[in-house]
Design brief:
Layout (H helix, E strand, L loop, with lengths): L2 H20 L2 H24 L9 H18 L4 H23 L4 H21 L1 H4 L5 E2 L12 H27 L2 H11 L1 H6 L4 H27 L1 E2 L6 H14 L6 H19 L4 H15 L6 H11 L1
Antiparallel strand pairs: 1-2
Length: 314
């Protein structure tokens, strides 16, 4: 990575961190949700590098969120760090099991199987009322962060900072992964699987480990959402949630690890204002946004960066 890019990244991180203490609480809350959903969208973008479109990342998003809720309710764990670790491990464990089967399929079969798994979880969350709370869901009490029980006014900013740090670490790890031989092999899967097999690499193993890694990202996004909202419900596993992740990915683009995060921030604020000013037609607003995007920026908002660069050159 170029020194200039590193400097811009550090300054952006410091600037975003400062925003948590000066912006209104509702804005900080929206940014926290956007970053958490951006991680789930990044997991979709990661699989798209291999030419796979997943409509089931809500399976791991909900797994991460409910794991945190169960750890609080059944084990009495309140420390945010432990909840994050437990949720990511649980999400990756679920992916390690389902991936043994689903990663053998491609194209529409992969998309539909991923959707089927998340709807199975959704159905279980609805029916197992005695442990999941059914449609009411489960409440998550305010967690401790670094062993400290923060006041209600401060906790919102502290959780935002924690979300920002987790997002930055995840972005760094995904960037390293994509620049590793396994990351290049993932792109080769999309271009020509047969040729990759001829080179001696196992296509199934490449897709499988990318699938497990993507699940960890989505699970991290799920637990961060649960901690910021303080509540989990089966809607987290519903197909519309998975559809939102695909929407956000297309909105931001897949060319950079930052693109899904930009898409998530735009999506979260667009949906909030659409709900405020057009509460009965906000889905139409989002649909119109998607149509315009497909017509004029089919590779997502990240292409605006290239336009700015071309203007600077000319």
């Amino acid at each position: 990575m170029k020194p200039r890019a590193v400097l811009i990244g550090v300054l952006s991180f410091v600037g975003l961190g400062a925003m948590g203490w000066v912006l209104p609480r509702w804005t900080v809350f929206l940014f926290s949700l956007a970053l958490a959903r951006g991680l789930a969208a990044l997991s979709v973008a990661l699989l798209m590098r291999a030419g796979l479109v997943s409509f089931g990342q809500s399976l791991f998003f909900a797994t991460g969120a409910y794991t945190a809720a169960f750890m609080v309710r059944l084990l009495g764990v309140r420390e945010a760090g432990l909840l994050l670790v437990g949720a990511v491990i649980a999400s990756m464990a679920v992916a390690a099991l389902t991936g043994l089967w689903i990663t053998r399929y491609r194209e529409i079969f992969f998309a539909m199987l991923s959707l089927a798994f998340t709807m199975i979880l959704y159905g279980w969350l609805l029916k197992a009322y005695w442990i999941t709370g059914g449609t009411d869901g489960l409440r998550i009490p305010p967690p401790t962060v670094l062993g400290t029980a923060w006041s209600v006014d401060t906790l919102r900013s502290v959780l935002y900072e924690a979300t920002l740090v987790c997002t930055a670490v995840a972005l760094g790890l995904i960037h390293l992964f994509l620049e590793s031989p396994l990351g290049y092999a993932l792109r080769a899967v999309r271009d020509n699987e047969v040729r990759l097999e001829y080179l001696g690499s196992s296509v199934w193993q490449v897709v499988y480990w990318a699938y497990v890694l993507a699940a960890g990202l989505a699970g991290l996004g799920g637990v961060l959402t649960a901690l910021n909202v303080g509540h989990v419900d089966p809607q987290l596993a519903y197909w519309t949630t998975a559809g939102e992740f695909v929407f956000i990915t297309l909105l931001g683009g897949t060319e950079s690890v930052l693109a899904p995060l930009i898409g998530a921030v735009v999506f979260e604020f667009l949906r909030t204002y659409a709900l405020k000013y057009a509460p009965y037609t906000w889905q139409m607003v989002l649909g119109g946004m998607m149509l315009l995007l497909i017509l004029f920026m089919p590779r997502g908002l990240w292409t605006l960066r290239h336009l700015r660069f071309r203007k600077a050159v000319s």
